[in-house]
Fold this sequence. Notes:
By secondary structure, this protein is an alpha+beta fold.
Amino acid sequence: MRYKPLPSSVYKNNRSSFSKKIDKLGLAVFNSNDIYPISADSTLPFSQHRDIFYLSGIDQEETILILFPHAENPINREILFIKKTNKLISVWEGEKLSKKKAREISGIENIKWLSEFKSTLYDLASQSDLFYFNTNEHYRAKNVTQTREDRFIKWAKNEYPAHRVGKSNPILQKLRSVKSEEEINQIKKACEITKKGIERIINFIKPGVWEYEIEAELIHEFIKNKSRGFAYSPIIASGKNANILHYELNNHKCKSGELILLDVAAEYGNYSSDLTRTLPVSGIYNDRQKKIYNSVLNVKKLATKLLTTGTLLSDYHNEVGKIMTSELLKLGLLRKVDIQNQSSKNPAYKKYFMHGTSHHLGLDTHDYGLLNDPLKPNMVLTVEPGIYIPEEGFGIRLEDDVVVKEKGEPTNLMQNIPIEIEEIEDLMNK
């Protein structure tokens, strides 16, 4: 690992909070992600399942966690199973975590080898009548690939048909949505690395530069600063490409007079940041671009003020829609007749601003957070309004990450990354 891990106390607290939410006879099992094959002997880089990481801090494949808060023997209330290093693994991959190191990271005393899992579960199953399984119930989830969790659930239901089944994910949705100070510091670190990336490219961008060359500069800076890389697939969209919301080709040459939309950010220690800036390829915004840019920036500033404790995201998005509608009317992109003909399901502003303004951020870029729950202190969210005008060949989006406070406006974790037109133009023309 190239990042500094959080103290084991963080993971102890997370496990304690989870364990208080499950039934007395409940036993919860969490599996790490698979290493996914490409073809032949090639694989995708391993990325740990965020739930087991949240509960243990272990960033290694083939790891299993059992939480059984009311086990008869206290030593069995938390058990971590890890892969044992053999001679072959040691030579080809390097040594895996020792029991001592796993204990230091997780704060779990009972560390066992993975080979002991089935026999241990068999012994504990007699003390439990309820298994908590961990399925992906995120509102954006598209479950197509069978995961390690899926295979375990199928196996466990077959082996223990008399056990009742509970769900871990709704509990974790609530717990993970509110961040500890240590977690916020990891996100801050990811934001700081992102800032370094923007500083690197702000004078690199010019007519004739390819989108992928900008991507290369960013990944260099991120890895140089102990990030594994991008927190999500980078969007580096010049000109009309900015109107494709999830543009990822990054294979066009930047042209004079164009804008380039950069939705790019670093991760750190599995925690995401999420940033968008829209810069002028030639270093200067033209008058039309300035008007649209300032409208988006105004929406962003006003929207940020609304992210306060107790706010419902549904109400928040409605209010942001009203603000955006007002700006689009001023710009002449919407007319009064468009407002008269709109419906609640199809508001007029969606023609130019078709995505949401904010989402939760943390271990996942689109992190856990229940949409119908009011905002709480220490929730971390994005603010990312945009205006997209395909007929004019450009789109503008601006995005920062903020922390909800006990009282008042949220704290902007990206406030030191240039966003005002004057500052950007000054930096690009030094």
